Amino acid sequence: MTTITLSIDNKQIEADHNVTLLSVFKANDVLIDQICGGQGMCASCHFFVIDGSDSLTAPTQQEQMTLQFTKIDRPGARLACQTRIVGNGVVIGMPQGTFVKSTEYLEQEIGKKAQQTLIHPMTGEILVEAGKLVMRSALEKMKEASNKFAANFSKN
User: pLDDT tens digits, residue range 92-111?
Assistant: First the structure.
C-alpha cells in the first residue's frame, strides 16, 4: 500500500493512500470527536486545509451540506470523516480550543474567563473565545445551535 506524508499542526504523519482523515487522526492520537458516528452530519471532526487541498478527495455532497449548515468561519474547513487523502503535501490545522461537552459544563463556567476557546461540539461554532468572559448568551447560543442541529439531523 502507498504511504503518504502529511502535516497536522506542524507534525509530520505517515498515512495510507485513500484512507479517511478521521482514521488518520485516530491512529495518531489527534483529538477529534465524531458525534454523528462518521456520517458527515455534524462538524465535530472538522479541520482546516492550509495547503495541498488537491491531494484530498473533493467534498462529498453530505460534507458540503453539513459545512453550509455550520458556522465555521475559517476557509479550508473540511470534515475528517468525509475526506480521504490521495496525495502528498497536505498541511492541516486543527481547531484551537476545546469542544463543550454539555450545557451543564457551560452553565458552571458562566461568569468565569474561558481558559481556551469554547467550541460547540456539533456545529464547530465558537461559543466563547479564550480569555473572554463566559456569558449566559453563550449558553443560549449553544442550546440554539444544538436544537437546530437536532432538527437538521432528524431530517436526514
Answer: 998 888 888 788 888 999 99
